[in-house]
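pls design
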């Protein structure tokens, strides 16, 4: 093949060769060969460029009181040299418009730098130390991690301060990493966290937490993570110190074609790290449903079993609340992987929740059969789920509900920022007292989380039930049929759209940020 001599810039020329069996067309092999073609007329660029984009977003109107406006976001990611050993990523978004319109967002500014020996992060993003001390806390901070190339050892430190939530807090951490071998790595952590006391204005509480963790490969395809932590809490007024501890075990692996996992996390009542006064255990196993069959359906279909428990207020202390809950969940089902990240699942759930205080405030049991269809991508997860359920509530009298639930879920993953999610569900249920229709929405955004359940009885009366606090049993006295008219509640950031049309305009243009090669 003859290459044109007047090409304006260098390019790659690739030739694909494919061989297919005459007897079985599903048997094929592909070979590709790529050749670089250097242009004789290409201009020399003295700059090393970083791909970036500039986005203008209109806020839209939530109601007539909102003002039209927009925010600007500049973001980019790329290398600082031709070899690609040093690179940065950054995002500059402002001003803060989360209360200005329907699509308003928090302002956010960060820049990160990475090379083979040093990681440096600055700005509004998530920082963390370990699972037991502090794990992925969002705020404005700075972090540096020194890790010599071709070495298992490293030293890091960070500082982060709260931006949005209350009470106000700030934390700093130091950690050292090392390894006895590639199969046995360890890490030492120290965290100091300060936060304001609501009940004592101007008073601060300080937590000092130490932990040691290790990651091991005890056998082929097996991974074991362990962590032990001890915390000390002290008040600003010198009222004395409180000490307690926590531990975590995480075992996962692959035995043939069977996957298994075991997780155990325990935090004592006076341990105030990432976990507090709780005990969690979960174990699961996943296996091929049709043995070693080689058909496409058999290879993509797997069965699973899972069992988990969760307890709070372990010592049943009244100063920790009037509920000491123990939850158990057993699940069994079938997963089938489809193409392009899609999957389908058919499962059985058996859930129970019991208050260990006597008399019990709220006990419940739920048995459900559900079918889910979803898709996982690099940044988004989607799932639509339908289930039939039998819900038994003891509070203090027994009430049994039978119903059908249809739910939708969407989550967004972003490496350096908060990850919002939305969830919505509609429930049609029947009990001995009455029929009811329930619409539930959940949202978690930079402007703050919101969870709301709206329960409509047959006469159209709405009762708002917070899903963050377990409600007492709700008695519906009406026995009329389910009404035809219901009130819908939209997602948490667009619930109030009455009387105006929400609009959004997003303009994004790519451009390159130049850096002189001579300066690098």
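designed seq:
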């Amino acid at each position: 093949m003859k290459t044109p001599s007047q090409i304006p810039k260098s390019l790659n020329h690739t030739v694909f060769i494919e061989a297919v069996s005459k007897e079985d067309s599903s048997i094929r092999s592909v070979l590709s060969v790529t050749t670089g073609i250097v242009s004789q007329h290409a201009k020399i660029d003295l700059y090393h460029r970083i791909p970036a984009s500039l986005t203008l977003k209109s806020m839209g109107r939530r109601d007539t009181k909102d003002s039209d406006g927009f925010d600007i976001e500049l973001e980019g990611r790329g290398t600082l040299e031709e070899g690609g050993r040093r690179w940065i990523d950054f995002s500059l978004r402002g001003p803060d418009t989360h209360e200005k319109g329907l699509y308003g967002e928090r302002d956010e500014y960060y820049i990160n730098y990475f090379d083979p020996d040093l990681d440096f992060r600055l700005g509004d993003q998530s920082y963390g130390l370990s699972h037991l001390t502090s794990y992925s806390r969002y705020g404005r901070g700075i972090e540096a991690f020194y890790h010599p190339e071709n070495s298992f050892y490293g030293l890091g430190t960070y500082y982060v301060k709260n931006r949005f939530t209350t009470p106000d807090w700030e934390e700093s951490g130091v950690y050292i990493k090392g390894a006895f071998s590639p199969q046995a790595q360890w890490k030492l952590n120290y965290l100091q966290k300060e936060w304001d006391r609501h009940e004592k204005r101007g008073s601060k509480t300080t937590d000092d937490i130490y932990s040691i963790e290790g990651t091991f490969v005890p056998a082929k395809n097996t991974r074991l993570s362990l962590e032990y932590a001890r915390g000390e809490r002290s008040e600003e007024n010198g009222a004395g110190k409180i000490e307690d501890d926590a531990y975590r075990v995480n075992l996962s692996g692959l035995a043939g074609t069977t996957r298994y996992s075991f997780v155990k996390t325990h935090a004592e009542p006076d341990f105030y790290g990432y976990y507090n006064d709780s005990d969690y255990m979960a174990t699961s196993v996943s296996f091929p449903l049709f043995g070693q069959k080689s058909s496409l359906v058999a290879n993509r279909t797997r069965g699973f079993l899972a069992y988990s428990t969760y307890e709070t207020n372990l010592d049943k202390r009244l100063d920790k609340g009037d509920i000491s809950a123990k939850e158990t969940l057993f699940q069994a089902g079938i997963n089938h992987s489809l193409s392009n990240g899609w999957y389908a699942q058919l499962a059985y759930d058996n859930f129970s929740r019991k208050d260990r205080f006597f008399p019990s405030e709220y006990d419940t049991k739920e048995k459900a059969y559900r079918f889910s269809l979803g898709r996982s991508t690099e940044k988004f997860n989607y799932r639509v789920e339908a289930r039939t359920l039998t819900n038994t509530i003891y509070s203090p009298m027994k009430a049994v509900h039978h119903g059908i639930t249809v739910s939708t879920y969407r989550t967004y993953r972003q490496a350096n920022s908060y990850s919002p999610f939305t969830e919505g569900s509609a429930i049609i249920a029947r009990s001995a007292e009455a029929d009811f229709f329930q619409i539930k929405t959940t949202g978690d955004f930079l402007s703050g989380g919101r969870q709301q359940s709206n329960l409509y009885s047959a006469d159209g009366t709405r009762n708002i039930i917070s899903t963050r606090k377990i409600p007492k049993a709700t008695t519906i006295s009406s026995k009329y049929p389910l009404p035809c008219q219901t009130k819908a509640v939209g997602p948490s950031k667009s619930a109030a759209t009455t009387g105006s049309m929400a609009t959004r305009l997003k303009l994004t243009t790519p451009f390159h940020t130049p850096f002189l090669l001579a300066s690098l």
